[in-house]
Amino acid sequence: MSSRLVGVGVGPGDPELVTVKGVNALRAADVVVVPVMDTLERGRAEATVLHYVPAEKVVRVVFALNERTDRARREAAWDAAGAQVAELLGRHGSVAFATIGDPNVYSTFTYLAQTIVELVPGVAVETVPGITAMQDLAARSGAVLTEGTEPLTLVPVTAGSAVLKEALAGPGTVVAYKFGRQAAEVAEALAETGRLGGAVWGSALGLPEELVRPAAELDGTPLPYLSTLIAPPRRDGGRGGKL
């Protein structure tokens, strides 16, 4: 029987936002892997997982989660993580990988799965979708992500503020991920494109340290790395105006 690797989206942090299918996948797996930057830390994914599975079932695997400049170090970390998960699959057969948000949206699971397919012939790879940070922030702030024919653009600000400015100059709602360290540039881009009013940002959604604020309050102070921004377009046509 082939081994099985399942990427499970566990949402932005609130354990109540893990889907029933996600909980079932976590409980059905022999081992649940959680990504960390250091084996001594408890990451957000692990904190969520522990609401549903016992700690002895959880294995921390180190990834260079924030490494963007040293490609060699990043690749080495992915290879080491892949080897560790491949070894777990050899011993247990069924491994779940818990990732915050959704496993198919800017997730470390993508890179892990590519590595495992090469290391473990015949492995079955599956994913279970999770609630994303933009969905949770929209719910907590009252921001409407899309109406009618509006497009929705998702931008990781780690790609640079120019990419964000280009998106903000276009139509529809713009969502920015991982913008905390570039908070000053984001505030400037919002002001330049007339998108400051109505925009909101949030971090640590669903956790005790949660922050949800109007983007107009951004003062350039760096924010947590995993901060999310929603910048809706102007909607002047009344109800159904974008149909």
3D architecture notes:
The protein is α/β, with parallel strands linked by helices. The chain has 7 helices and 10 strands. A 5-stranded parallel β-sheet has the order 3-2-4-1-5, sandwiched between helices. The chain has a 5-stranded mixed β-sheet with strand order 6-7-10-8-9, sandwiched between helices. Helix 3 (71-92) crosses helix 4 (108-119) and helix 6 (161-168) runs parallel beside helix 7. It is elongated, with a radius of gyration of 19 Å. The termini are far apart.
- The overall pLDDT average reads 90
Low-confidence spans: pLDDT under 50, at least 5 residues?
Answer: none
Label the structural class.
alpha/beta
Measured distance between first and last alpha carbons: 51 Å
Helix count? Answer: 7
- Spatial ordering of strands, largest sheet: 3-2-4-1-5
Strand content: 15-25%
Shape, principal axes of CA atoms: elongated
User: Which bin fits the share of residues in helices?
Assistant: 25-40%
Secondary-structure element series: EHEHEHEHEHEHEHEEE
Short structural summary:
The protein is of the alpha/beta class.
List keywords for this structure.
single chain; 243 residues; alpha/beta; five-stranded parallel sheet; five-stranded mixed sheet; 7 helices; 10 strands; 31% helix; elongated
